[in-house]
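Could you help me review a protein record that somebody else here produced? This is what I was given.
***
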Amino acid sequence: MEFGLNMNRVIQDTIVGNAKMTVDQWVAEHPVVGFFVMHPRILLGLVVVGILLLTGLFGAVSRMTEGFWLRLIRMPFILVRSLGRGGFWLVRRALRQPTATPTPTPNPWLEIAQRLEALRHEQDVLMQDIQILLQQTTDVPNKS
């Protein structure tokens, strides 16, 4: 019985020794990890700081994408609204009665100016007739 207990202890010591030797070699190759294994409070503080930084990062990413998702969700409604407005505009345009072109109300000053121009033209014609008559009367000798 004693032999069995000693055998168990030997096997246990061998396994623990090999595991310890492997861990010691790995810690020797990675001194930063060894430092944190030897100082667990510092490791705990860094883990807490890392978690806080990650939650802040995730919050910032969510705030940045929130506007994008809201715009993406609102896009179909905006599209339907703009198409509806355009459709109503086309229907209103198609149903609109063609209006007769309004007759321009005559400008009284324009009418007066046109009448004066016509009178001046008539005066010029009459002046030419008078000049012709005067030339004819001066050309005819006086027979008295």
Observations:
- The mean pLDDT is 86.
